[in-house]
């Protein structure tokens, strides 16, 4: 495979995330280097954004992303990130990035995901966060109904238990689906999209009763 296609890579971390698995600079760099090698790209430049505070979704507060976009326009090439949330967790911000006419690649999703699909993945991720937040509020409301005084020092413990309950539910679902994913892989499904198609063909629904996509499969594999 030829490796004469330039690629700009963008890595983003916060100081609190650098030590977390899958979010650190080295982990993202390794993912992007492997992606470039596998897909026939040559990393022309790397841009690293280290945020000392809460992540911002304003481009003028992301100087390295702004520089990556400029470099990609000059080289007429793609900007690649390890995961979609390294660009942003906000679907509107991602939509705004697409207006810069610089194509993006997400290593975990593969090279064939077009901007429309990236919008869908971002919207799905945003919806998932909203559902988790809603479930957490419902769990807190139930705790309050049982007489837990949420305004006292027990609030943090009650909130933690609520989050743990939602997380445990998601982990159990992932554990139930993982054997089916392994069967699909043994049958020849080697990509996230292929696994999603296999799950849909088998009539396996997501935790919310919907269809599988590459991103939802990736979420399950990360939990597993």
In words, what does this structure look like?
With 224 residues, this protein is an alpha/beta fold. The protein contains seven helices and four strands, in the order βαβαβαβαααα. The protein has helices at residues 25-39, 63-75, 91-98, 115-145, 155-186, 192-201, 214-223, and strands spanning 5-14, 41-51, 78-81, 104-106. The radius of gyration is 20 Å and the shape is globular. The two termini are 32 Å apart. The model has no long low-confidence stretch (mean pLDDT 77).
Provide a compact summary of the structure.
53% of the residues lie in helices and 12% in strands. It is built from seven helices and four strands; from the N terminus they run βαβαβαβαααα.
Number of strands: 4
- Number of separate helices: 7
Strand order of the largest sheet: 2-1-3-4
Helix-strand pattern: EHEHEHEHHHH
Largest sheet composition:
4 strands, parallel
Oligomer: single chain
Terminus-to-terminus distance: 32 Å
Write down the overall mean pLDDT.
77
* Uncertain segments: none
Rg over C-alpha atoms, rounded to the nearest angstrom = 20 Å
Q: Quickly give the structural class.
A: alpha/beta
Amount of beta strand: 5-15%
Q: What best-fitting shape do the alpha-carbon axes yield? A: globular
Helix content: 40-55%
């Amino acid at each position: 495979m030829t490796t004469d296609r330039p690629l700009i890579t963008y890595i983003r971390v916060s100081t609190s995330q650098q030590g977390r698995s899958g979010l650190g600079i080295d982990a993202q760099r390794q993912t992007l280097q492997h992606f470039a090698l596998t897909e026939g790209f040559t990393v022309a430049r790397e841009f690293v954004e280290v945020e000392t505070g809460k992540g911002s979704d304003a481009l003028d507060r992301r100087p390295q992303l702004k520089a990556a976009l400029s470099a990609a326009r000059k080289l007429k090439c793609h900007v690649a990130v390890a995961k979609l949330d390294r660009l942003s967790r906000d679907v509107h911000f991602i939509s705004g990035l697409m207006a810069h006419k610089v194509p993006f690649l997400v290593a975990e999703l593969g090279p064939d995901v077009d901007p429309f699909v990236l919008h869908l993945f971002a919207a799905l991720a945003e919806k998932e966060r909203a559902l988790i937040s809603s479930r957490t509020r419902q769990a807190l409301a139930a705790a309050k109904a049982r007489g837990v005084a949420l305004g006292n020092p027990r609030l943090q413990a009650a909130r933690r238990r609520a989050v743990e309950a939602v997380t445990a539910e998601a982990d159990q679902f992932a554990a139930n689906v993982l054997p089916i994913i392994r069967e699909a892989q043994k049958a020849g499904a080697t990509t996230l999209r292929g696994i999603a198609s296999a799950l849909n063909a088998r009539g396996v629904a997501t935790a919310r009763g919907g269809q599988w996509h590459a991103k939802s499969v990736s979420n399950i594999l990360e939990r597993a």
